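Now for my pick.
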Amino acid sequence: MRIYSVFNYFLSLTLAVILISCGAGGDNQGLEYAPNMYHSVPYEPLSQITDEDAGEATQFLNNTRDGHGEYYNSNPLNAHGMTMRTPAPNTVPRKKDGFLPYRIPKDSLEIAAEIESPIDSTMAEAAIKDGKALYGRYCEHCHGSKGEADGLVAEKYPGVANLQGVAYKNITEGHIFHVITWGKGLMGAHGSQVSPEDRWKIAKFVKSIQK
C-alpha cells in the first residue's frame, strides 16, 4: 500500500512539473502547430513589401527557405517591382466581355430601367439560348416555363409576378436585370448567385418570351 502511495505521489509530481513547463509567457510562447494560423499577417491591397528581410523566420513564422522573409511580396521580374500594378486614376475595371461593375442602388429602379443591355444584336441569338437554360435553373420554379407565374413555388406562395401580364409587358431588360440583382417584392436578390453576364442573358430571354 505504501509503495502504491509513493508511486501516486511521484506520478502527481511528474504531471505537475510537465504542466508547469507547458506554460507560455514572456519570450517563451511555447510550441504552436501552423503558427501563421494564430499570427496571420494582413496585406494591404495593391501594396508591395520590398524589404527582403521583412518577416524573417522567427518562433512564430515558418521559414520560406527561398532566401527572403515571409512578408516580402515584390516581383523582381516586374520593372516596378510590383506583383499587381495600381490601376490608372479615374478608371473602372471591365470584365472580359466589356461589362462594367453594376453600382446602381436598389431603390433606383427607374434609373436602372433606362440602361441598355450590353449584349448587342450580333450576340442576341446565342444569349437567348443561354438565357433559356439559365431561366430554367433560376426562375422557372417560380415564374413558370413561359413566365405565367405557374411554377411549383408559385402554387405555394401566391403573388409571384406574371411576366406575361399587362403590367410587365413593357418592362425593359435593364428593369429585369435590376430586379434579378436586388430583388423586388416576394422575389429575393440573386446578384450573389447569378453573374452579371448571366443576368443580362436571362433578361434577354424574358423579353423574347414576352413577344
User: Anything to note?
Assistant: The chain is about 35% helix and 0% strand. The mean pLDDT is 83. The CA atoms of residues 39 and 178 lie 42 Å apart. The helical segments are 2-21, 109-112, 124-138, 140-143, 152-156, 173-182, 196-210.
